[in-house]
Amino acid sequence: MSPVILDRLTNDLRERYSAATTTISREMVFSYTALIFIFVLAFLVRILAMLRPYEIILAANDPFSQLRAAQYIETNGLEAFFSWVDPQTWYPEGRYWGQSQYIGTPLSAVILHQLFLLLGLHVPLEFVAYIQPPLFGALTCVAIYFLGKELGNKKVGLLSALFLSISAGHLQRTIAGFFDNEALGILFLVLTLYFYAKALRTGSASMAIWAGICLGVLSGSWGASTYVFNLLALHAFILILMRKDSDRLLLAYGGSVVIGSFIMTLIPRNGPASILSTDGLIPLGVLGLLVLVSLLRIISSLYDLTDLKGQIKSYYPLIGLGIVIGIALFLLSGVATNLSSKFITVILPFFRDETPILKSVSEHQLVSWAGFFRNNGVLLFLLPLAMYYLYEKPTERNLLLLIFGFTSIYFAGSMVRLALILAPAAALLAAKAIDQTLLPFVLTFQERFALSRRKTRLIQPMSNEHTAIAFSFIGLFLLFSVLNATQAAFDSTQAPSILTIVPGSGGQSLIIGNDWQEAIGWLDYHSTVNDVTASWWDYGYWISGNSNVTILVDNATINSTKIGNVGCMLVLDPRQSLKIAKLYDVTYIALLVSDGYGTFGLDSDLGKVPWFVRIGEQRGNIFQIDQDDYLEFDSRGQYITGYVDKFYDSVFWALFTAGVTEEAYTSRITQYSPIVDNAPPARGFSPEYAEYANYYELAYKTTHDWIYIYKILWDVIPPGAIAP
Q: In the chain, what percentage of residues exceed pLDDT 70?
């Protein structure tokens, strides 16, 4: 090779290397070191549940369904999952899993599991499912750093990441074992907002595409994607009203919504119908409006439309009326589906009283002020201050954070489980408030103020001592957030709900019971695929996720009519109850008795009877029941936790108290202050239905008398014993 050519190549490489070399600043080293520390902190706090003195087990109900889906995907593939009809769930129709399950969480667990195996870590899929929520929760803290940096600066990003890492509201759904949609959903919510905000600032098409992809993944992972779609729509609409629309907004919003909607239609759980729902059409409608406004802006730049605008103004009322009529006709045409009942009750929570199947779920209740404080700690008091700062300077990105904050606060108050949406918003707002509040003190300390002589005189009393006091006060203020997070982390080490907390001797000490696993194991061993087990829908995922037992209903609430009929079957008299059981081929009935007949309130099926009745009254279609025949109300029409008349002739009450002596029953009632006030003694079936005691056999009861499993003896039941 010629020395000249070699010299040129060497010089070229030297120049390229020199151009690629960057100076690593101390600020960058500090930022990323702090971010690594926050990631580790977030992960460790969320795996504290592994320190529990009992077996590693999934928390709550839904994770068992997610794990079952993940197991099927790993064994049979994603394509088979989309066409999987499970005949042992929601008997006799079966459950169409591909059309009723969000795939993000189970699919991500399968991908993680395969990655672990590739790295030589041979851990079971169940363990991957157990640690996935802490991993995604910690990654969300990293993602919110970049979002905070985009919406503010590096300080806002780091503070946001720190606050989210110890947020009780975020921690409660990302602890080890809480293998559900929220951990992955919040991660992609934050990523969507980050790429959207960056596309809005830079006008980058690639950022808009990434925002759309993240929004599409979110739509396949969590139902709260509806909130994100409409959050972006509200942001774009407000910018249009404020005449802050731009080509960057059209690119960022259009790319996000179009790509996100397209991916959403490809997911069987959503399908094309998802964008034809009323809440799905809103983002597309705002996109159409944004395109129209952009076209008008382009035309106005090319032609003088002053006279035309003046003429059009006089027709604004007619144009507005025409738009309203057009929207109304479109909705009435039936092309667009109505808002889902769950979405309506989030926006208008008082409608939840009209939907008992939603109201019966504890995580769908309104949030108390105590709950707000428990989820957010003292950060709650910084939110109004942050909103003031954002309102004072309404830039595009400040408006995005302001709208995110307002809407998340409203929805978090509307439904307990949506506290998770408020968690990242609260972290961002609190970080913004602290950054803006401490900024004058920082500038004073660094002597970087460039003010007029008058303003300089005003700030002269602000010394370094004042700066130290301000920082100390904020530090002390935030210490309470750490204490609140510590309590939340401690709470995560408590027993998951599938494990029963059973009173020991004398009712004083508490021990952990495996009654549900014991009952499910017995059913799995003794029942066949033709034996149908009926229970209240709360326990469906536990039973189906841990056995091959055939069940009527589960927590997916796919068929509310069938849930209503199960409620009726439990509270009706034996003649009518047996008719419903016969229609569904029921062999076994599982009851959560709780060894005290109301000892722990809603921890027993006795406390859930009002929901049996209300859902049965509204949804059941075999027999009509009236809650006034079962529940006791005061003079104002309020339920007062008592039961009357027909309830004491119900199959539920007879099976619930079967074999219990009046002395034992009264002792338990007195000792534990139960739900039932002035309840009659345990009596089994009433004299009118005494013969029916021969048709139900107590096939099994768990070690701590917590769960009873009854078998219906169809062979000995005469035809006349069943209602026509």
A: 72
